[in-house]
Amino acid sequence: MAAAPLPDFNMAESVLWQPGTDDTLECVLVRDETHDVKTFVFRSQQPRRFRYLPGQFITLELEINGAAINRCYTLSSTPTRPDTVSITVKRVPNGPVSNWLHDHMQVGRTVKVLGPSGEFSCFLHDRPKYLFLSAGSGITPLMSMSRALTDLALDRDVVFVHSARSPADVIFAREQQALARNNPTFRHAVICERAGADRDYAGYQGFLSLATLSNIAPDFREREVFTCGPAPYMAAVRKILEAAGFNMQQYHEESFAFETLMGGAEEAQPPAAAEGEGYTIRFAKSGDEVRCAPPQTILAAAKATGMRLASSCTQGLCGTCKTKMLSGQVDMKHAGGIRQREIDQGFILPCCSVPLSDVVLDR
Q1: Under DSSP, is residue 27 helix (H, G, I), strand (E, B) or coil?
Q2: Alpha-carbon gap, residue 265 to 271, rounded angstroms
Q3: Tens digit of pLDDT for each residue in 230-244?
Q4: DSSP states of 50-82
Q5: Which of 83, 86, 136, 171 lies 20 to 30 Å from 36, alpha-carbon distance?
Q6: What tens digit of pLDDT does each residue of 290-310 get?
Q7: Are 331 and 307 in contact (CB under 8 A)?
Q8: If 0-12 CB within 10 Å is exposed, 13-18 middle and 19+ buried, where does residue 155 land?
Q9: Could you write out the DSSP letters of every residue in 282-323?
Q10: Given this model, what pLDDT does residue 267 score?
């Protein structure tokens, strides 16, 4: 494979990567982070500078064993280094996408990507003090934020507390230590369930608790909190903060553990509507029309006809498929992937919306 040419830093600004950008990215580096976590670094095949908010995610569009699968991964990279992007992926038992990436994604291979999306970013909430709480691979969006804050030399006071099974499972351990050395306003701490084989480990052991949090960040009530990790971890964090009288208006969380939530498989959908049944779903921009009969969702009906729509969790959790509804009525049962203000503005999630009438979408 021919070596990539050096960039011309004198050239005019290249095309920017904006929200909703459809692109094909090439893998340029695969890096082992732990025994079951890898970082995959990508660049665009065309001259492009990647612009996004630290903490946002991209959607990978893959074909695995003959099936089209979309999956969201938060970017562990930072937009302050705009020529490449990276995702950091933990191998999930029976997870079709994480295992495929670990086993098959290699330097030179390309992947279709839709991105960036999401509102989980401290850059949308400018505060003097932040508290980042993560567990497992939930460290990735918070690492993106930490890298960006450090690169920009912003004087924000950050305390980063990461939980892991053992010291061997701590992702980005050395880099977090380097961030703390190079940034006087950045502090980090690690909490491990057990010391494992590391006899020299002298950090916190057990699980995050109010006592431990108060010891690490006594002023946590003054901080804007961002949390990412498995659902039980985030539930425990909420319980700790609420018991401590924390103002939950200062709390933000994100989770993309879809393979765990879905048992490694896409949720089964009802069959496509027969001719003349159900309601007409029209896509205003493309001009496409599909028939959708309850209890089938709009997304399932579109995919049944071969339409290619951005989606990931199929459970109303991630917000990837968020779309403006121009007319019509739907029954939407989401799981947090859309905010009330967006619903009030007419947005829906096709993955969890069943039509109650003919519908027109702004796509």
Answers
A1: strand
A2: 17
A3: 889 999 999 999 999
A4: E---TT-EEEEEEEETTEEEEEEEEB-S-TTST
A5: 83
A6: 999 999 999 999 988 888 777
A7: no
A8: exposed
A9: EETTT--EEEE-TTS-HHHHHHHTT-----SSSSSSS-TT-E
A10: 42
260-283 residue pLDDT tens: 434 333 444 455 555 557 999 999
Convert 181-198 to b/e letters by CB count within 10 Å (16 or more is b): eebebbbbbbbbeeeeee
Q: Which residue has the higher pLDDT, 110 or 322?
A: 110
Q: What residues contact residue 202 under an 8 Å CB cut-off, 6+ apart? A: none
* Closest by Cα among 80, 159, 74, 173 to 118: 74
Q: How confident is the model at residue 200 (pLDDT cuts 50, 70, 90)?
A: confident
Q: Which two tokens stand for residue 354?
A: 């069943």
Give the H or E element holding residue 97. Answer: helix 96-104
Helix-strand-coil split of the chain, %, nearest 5: 25, 30, 45
Residue 185 has which token pair? 């306003």
Assess contact for 70 and 312: CB atoms under 8 A.
yes
User: Three-state secondary structure along 126-139?
Assistant: CCCEEEEEEEHHHH
| Cross-sheet strand order for the sheet of 21-34 | 67-74, 57-64, 110-117, 21-34, 37-44, 85-90
Exposure string (b/e) for 259-277, b if CB count within 10 Å is 16 or more?
Answer: bbbbebebeebeebbeeee
Reported as half-sphere exposure (CB side, CA atoms, 13 A), residue 209 has a value of 8
Tokens of 238: 């909420």
**Burial readout 314-330 (b: 16 or more C-beta within 10 A, e: otherwise):** bbbbbbbbbbebeebeb
Can you tell me whether residue 9 is helix, strand or coil? coil
* Token pair belonging to 72: 């969201």
Report the distance separating Cα 128 and Cα 264, nearest Å. Answer: 40
